[in-house]
Every structure is written in C-alpha cells, then in structure tokens.
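debug: dumping io for the single-chain case to check the tokenizer round-trip. Nothing else runs in this session.
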Amino acid sequence: MRQKGPLYIFFLLIIWSCLPGHSKAELVSKGVVNILLEKLQQGEPVKLDGTWEFYWKQLVSPDSLSSGHSFSEKPEMVNIPAYWTEYSVNGKSLPGSGYATYHARLKIAGADGDTLSLLVPIFDSAFELFIDGKLRYKNGRVGTSFGSSVPRYRPGHIQFIAGKQPVDIVIQVSNFHHRRGGFWKPLYLGTPGSVALQARKHNHLIFAALIFLITFGVFYSIFAFYYREEKSLLYFSLSLWFVVLRSLANDNFLINDLFTPSWTWLIRIEYLSTFLALMFFNWYYYYFYRNQAFYAWNRLVTYITVFCSLGILFLPVRIFAYSLFIFYALVFFSGILIFYFSLKLTGRKVAFARYHLIGISLILVIILHDILVANAFEVHYGEYLMKYGFVVFIYIETAIMLKRFVMTIRNERKLTSESEAVNANLESLVNERTEEINQKRVEIENKNRSISEQNKRLKEDVVSRNRLFSIIAHDLRSPLAVFVQVMELMDGDELDDSSRRELRKEMKVSARSLVGLVDNLLVWGRSRNNQVQYELKRHSLNKILKNSIEQLEQTAQSKSIALTLDLTQEYEAVIDSNSIQLAVRNLVSNAIKFTPEGGSIKVFVRSVADNRLEIHVKDDGIGINEEDLQKLRQGIEFTSAGTNNEKGTGLGLQLCREIAHQNKGELEIWSKPGEGSDFVMSVHSYVKHSI
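debug: decoded output
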C-alpha cells in the first residue's frame, strides 16, 4: 500500500500539470475583441487569446487593416496562441519557415482617451507590432526571406490610447531561422498599472528563484570541492548551474542584461544548458545510489548529449532545433527509469529513497509541464516552472544532505568511543611494537643510505670510465693517425719543400690539438677525483690572454681566421692562472672550430659592476640554434663537428664552466645562428685597498 501512495501522487501531479489554464476563456472571436473598460480597470490583465485574422505569406500594410478601410483578401481565422505549423491554408499544413500578418480589432466599451497597456511576448522569430497603423514595438527585422529577416527575442510592454473608435492591432511575423514560427505565447491587455504589476510580479519571481538557485549553486559547489569523494554533490551542482543558465536564456531573457549575445547564441545556450542539465542530473542520481543498472543508460545519455551538443554548436538553429525531440525522448526514458528505481528503493526501505522519490516526481512533472509550454499548449500555468521546481527539489536535497551528515557525525562519534576503548588496551602493545619498528627502520635507512651513496659513486665512476674510453678510442686516435699519415708522406721523395712545410704546419696543428685534448683530459680526470687545487691570486690578465692566444694563432691561420686580442688597458684579476689559461684556450679553440675559413675571432676584456671583469671570446661563425643554446646554458654537454669536420670531446665547455665556478665567476653564452657566438667568462678584478 505504501508503494501505491507515491504513484497516486505522481499521477495527480501529471494531471494537474496538463490541466487547461484558468484564464482559458477566449476574448478574441473572429478577429474582434469586445470588452468593458471597467473590467480592465478593476481586474488583472486579460489574455487576447482566441481566433485572430491571419494572412499567410503576406505582410499586409497596417493602414489597410485599420478602421474605415477594407482589405480585399479574405483572411484565415486561426487560434492564438499557437505555432503556425498547426494551421492549414487551402487544406495544406503550413511549414515552419515563412511570414504572415495577424490582425485583431479591440472594441473597448466606455473608453474615451483612456491609456491602456499591452504586455508583449516573444514571437518566432521576428515581429513588428502596429497599433492603429503606427509601429509601436518590434524585435529583429521582419522579412520575406532568410537574408532579409533578422531574428531577436526581447519581451516588453507598450502603452496606447483607447478611444471610442476600435483599436486595430496588426502584428507582422517572419521566421526563417527557427524550426517553426508564429504567435505562440499570449498577449496581455490591461491598464498600465495592472500590466506593470504583473510584469513586476513575474520578474520578482524569476529573480527570487535565480538568486536562490545561484546561492545554492555556490553552496553545493563549495561542498563538492571540499568533499570530493562524494561525486553526487559535484554533479548536482553542475546540473543546478545549467538550470540557472537555461533560466537566464529563456525567462524574460535576462542574459541580455549581462551581455548581448546574438539570437543564434541565445538559442544555443538554451539548448546546450537543457541537455547538460539533464545529463548531470542523471549522473547525480547514479552516484547518490551507485545503481549499476542505471550506469549503462547514463553512458548512452552522455554520448547522445555530446553528439547533440556538437550539432547545437556548429549547425544552424533551424536544424539543431529538432534535437529537442531527442531531448524529450531522453527525459521520458530517464524519468521512467529514475521513478522506477526510486520506487523500488523505497520499497526496500533504502535510506532517503522516499524523499528522493517525492523530489524526482516533482521534477519530472515540471519537465513535462515545460515541454507543453514550449510547444504552445495552454496548460495550468503558462510559464516555465523548471526553476521553481528546482527550488523545491533543492530544499528536499538539502534536507537529505544535512540528515546524512548528522547520521555520519553520530556514527563517527560512536565509532570513536568504541575505538578509544580498544585503543586503551592496545596502546601499550602498540608503543612497544612501534619502538621496535622504529629502531629497525633507522637501521634499514642507514644501510639504504650507505648503499645508495656507494651506488651513486659506482655509477659516476662507470660513466667517467666509459667517457674516457670513448674519448681515447675516437678523439685521441684521430690526431695520432694524422701524425702517422704525415710522417709516411714526408718519407716519400715526391714531395717538394713547399709541400713538406704545409705538412709540418698540419702536424703542429694536430700536435697542439692533441696537447689541448690531453690537458683537458688530465684536468677533467683529476677534477672527478677532487685532486685539482685552485689557488686564487693576483695575476695579470693581459699576460694570460696573450699566452693563450699565441698558442692558437697557428691553428687559426690554418683556417685563414683573423684571431685578434683587443686590450685597452692593463687588467689584473684574482684568479688561478693555469685554470683560466686552460679555459681561454678551450673557448678560443671552440670558436676556431665553429668559424668558417676567412672568419674572425676577437678576444677582449670589459669591466662591469661589482669589481668584475668579463673575458669575451666573440666570433662571427655559424652560431648556435636556440635548442642547442638552451642545452649549453643548462649544462647539458654534447658534441658536434666543426666547419671543417673538426672532432670534439664535449669536455671543453664543461671544463670552462667548472673553472669559472672555481674562480668565483660564471660562464654565459650568447649566440644567433648565422651571426656568431659570444662566450663570456666573468672573474673578480683585483682591487687595491688603501689603509
């Protein structure tokens, strides 16, 4: 019997939502309204529903339909409000696209210069409203084709003077952008005060509902953020936000007060929020009860929503508007499944299932009501109720959530008291075991730390050894091979003195390269074992640079490179002379390697702030691309062949960087492909302190 009660309530709500409106009485009969001014002044605004004159495929001039004129063509008489797809002309149903003129004549008994007001709804999808031949209100631009018609939605109200003569209302409507067009919402007539009051009441209800929904949207979003394991809160808050967005886009179109979207995007927002609100509501229900039987349906709803959303985003309105039929099907089957599962869980006495059944029944009935309103059916309440239904539903859900949290707190307190009793007996035993475990843990950590350090040293030794073998195998072999080849050539008799001199020059270059390589290897190998001693003293930087340049002049000449040393004054620095000389040789050698024949290399010193000197080795060579430059700045070493395919070890810049740091300085690299490079090593200048 308990299970039948919710069913009775559910079906009673459905019947109520489908009842005809309480103001169904039709005032307009064959295009004429007869009403007493006294009735308008003493009561609420009345709907101008009934049978209006209708001229299909005609934008009839308002003057030709006013009092005292007669229009030659006989009009159709159609029911208002309704989409014109529900009409037939000459036995043929009308399409959704087209244009037409509506006409009604108001005969207000007792009026003599009295001010009345019209509450104007929206028309699909553009209209112009004339009173006694004068244009009084419009939305968009009425046209006779897709290109000449401009849709727009913005309801409002206007005032006019009613006298003894009848008042003619002419409404020209065109629709080429939506699925269907026409006069589908009622037009209200009343005094300015009653119309303004009704508009205010309606707006106040909308604002109150929206403020409530937004407040609880923030509330549930905060809860979802801090209580992330409860996904039902997240999906409920998302569903709530999309209901808010839908209400902004189709209830008096308040979204236009925030910003001004185009008519197309207004419809896109309405349709997208409608689909997404349903999808997230379904996932909310699933995660609240973890009903696996509902999971497959939710996945299907999600796929369909994504598909329809893509269509809504990229297709024109007149095409994606048909997606509402898909939405109606999703609502129908989702409603049946949710109601069925809720009823089933209620029968099993699952916690909160009965409350959910009441709230979900209400939401389903309201969705049915809103579908009827959207399709121009005259039902008990002729406006959208979704926002109000969600207000009631939120109250129910909030009560459920608070009760769940209260029950959770009670259970936690109960478990806490029980665990405290158990912990009291186990505390001493746990402390003993913990002490033993801590001692073992410390021993294991010490052993692991020792093993880790040993492994690190072994890996470094292996890497250093492999690199050393690689250098010996590849880079030391090349200069030695050159020596052997040159000596074999010089032993021959076919060489003249000039050729022998060239060979001797080549041998010198190879020898210097070999000496530099050996120096780098020795310093690098010793630095790996912390055997290099740096002694920072006062030295003549000019002398060190001259010695370094002289050792590489022959190598530069062999590539026809102009190697110059530009010193404008005597520079003294606090440095280790041997290491700085090695670093400068490496930088100059590297510049020679990547400078083509006929290029130039300039070495100079520049004083900078904080008593520092910068040693510049600047060339106009091939430069370094941005990717390799970033690697060098990050200390990632790599090798590449020079302009004459010179070999390299990849140790040079690494040594220079280490030497710069040991001399309390830095190494910076600036380069542009095709323009050259500038290697800058900074050191401390010698400053004589006075006593």
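debug: round-trip ok. The mean pLDDT is 80.
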